[in-house]
Amino acid sequence: MATLAKGGRTNTLGFILRLLGGLPFLFVGFRLYGVDEMGKFAAAFVVVEIFALICALGEKRGLAQRLTEGIQDEEDTPANLVFDAMLVSLVFSGLACLLLIAFPVIIFPSGVSSPFDMWMIAAIPAFALTEILLAAQAYKYDIATTVRARALVEPWVKSILVAALFFVPALSSGGIALAFIGAIYAAFFTALWSFLRTYGLPKSWRPRPRYLAKMTSRAFPLIGADVIERGTRLLDVFLLGQFTSSGTVGIYWFAKEVVSLPQKLKTSFEPILAPVITKNLKTGNMEAIAAQVRQVGFWIIALQFGIALTLAIPGEGVMGLGGPAIVGGTGALAILLAAEVIASMAVVSESVLVYIARKRNLAISVVVITLQGALTVGFILLAQHLGYPEGFQAAGAAAALFVSLGAASFIKAAVLKTLLKAPVSNLRWALVWAAAPAVIVGFLFTRYTPEWVELLIGGPAIMATYMWVIWKRGFDEADKVLFRKKVVPDEAPESLVP
Questions:
Q1: Is residue 32 within 8 Å of residue 176, measured between CB atoms?
Q2: What is the DSSP letter of 324?
Q3: Contacts of residue 34, Cβ cutoff 8 Å, sequence gap at least 6
Q4: Residue 455 to residues 314, 318, 434, 439, 461: CA-CA distances in angstroms?
Q5: What separation in angstroms does the CA of 426 have from each of 98, 265, 293, 341, 403?
Q6: Closest by Cα among 405, 326, 320 to 368
Q7: In contact, 255 and 398? CB cutoff 8 Å
Q8: Would you say 397 and 251 are in contact if contact means Cβ atoms under 8 Å apart?
Q9: What's the pLDDT tens digit per position in 476-497?
Q10: What is the pLDDT of residues 110-162, one digit of tens each?
Q11: What is this structure's pTM?
């Protein structure tokens, strides 16, 4: 549990840094460029990310396996193996760029506002290659490069450029797109610099068509898993872009970006949870795995619930930071926050199912994302038919995500419970006891104080009240490990893993 706690703390820090760096881009972008322009960017961004995930060939996990398998011949140096992946990724990226250039309606369903907008397509190869380079660094236990590239360089370059370019007349019309491209390439070169220092340049490397074809065929299941996993968080934005105005997409995307911190908390434990689970699988200790799922699941949902209350209760004030036109998305914000809380069980369950029931897990994921797509389109069209405004259409997409993630959590937890023959639920009554006083505090601030007090003082007060109660009433000694840097003697590393 100490190992899990340490890994969760380290990775969560990176996500918090990324959030802090990205918030200026969000607020400055909406204030300077407007809802419609940010909506067009959001619709294009999700397409770029999905294509980049495909072009990364699932190497986030596949590269580690190939490097672990070792050297098969003299050409299989670690640097050469990474360059093999980069070559195939560039080929896929080139094809993806040509497709989007030929059919720009895929990426810009509402049209472009500037000739620079189409340049966003050029971010696909850099995005994909960065994923591969960071996977190579992670194999060497270098998490610092990921934090630098994704949590510091990328968000801050994007935030600085989007503000600076607005005041350059020749570039201001494409400021959002250019800031995004600049940030993606800055992250790429950051990752490349660390990679070259760690692995060096390839030696006697040359393309090997037969090996590259075999590598690509092995990558398809991983590509599918990555795209489905990330697709559940992007499909709603994509469908809104196809069926609604760019303004609706802008409102919804603002809410989704605000929700990004509790969403990322779930993945903070993945890098360290996997080796702990695989060790217990090797010894057949299913009860220990179930205990770890319950423990990590409660850590995640406890933190997510507190953040959700902090952001949802003063929701109108939070959304208003992006401008008056964004306030209509307050309902979508609340539903999205609830969706992330309910999704925590699915994510933790999946971290085990990918090892012991890979096909069943993938089948469930396919059904869930299909359900989400159908519900999203259905709710959007229903809101349009009834004549509801943009905020209700955005809330419909959020409701579809909530239902889908709730179904995924219930089904995957049930399957995992059956396979482990032990309970895996992360729900405890302490969540209710902690939420009740936090809601009361939030109500008093939203009812009796001005908006700036509600945000600056009320939000922290809600979180502090919640955390104090959950610490006193909900956390036992095992739970409190998450907040302690030193919980076991250094001389007994074998005690770190149950």
A1: no
A2: G
A3: 250, 323
A4: 7, 7, 20, 15, 10
A5: 46, 15, 8, 11, 19
A6: 405
A7: yes
A8: no
A9: 666 555 555 554 443 333 333 3
A10: 788 888 999 999 999 999 999 999 888 877 777 778 878 887 899 899 999 99
A11: 0.77
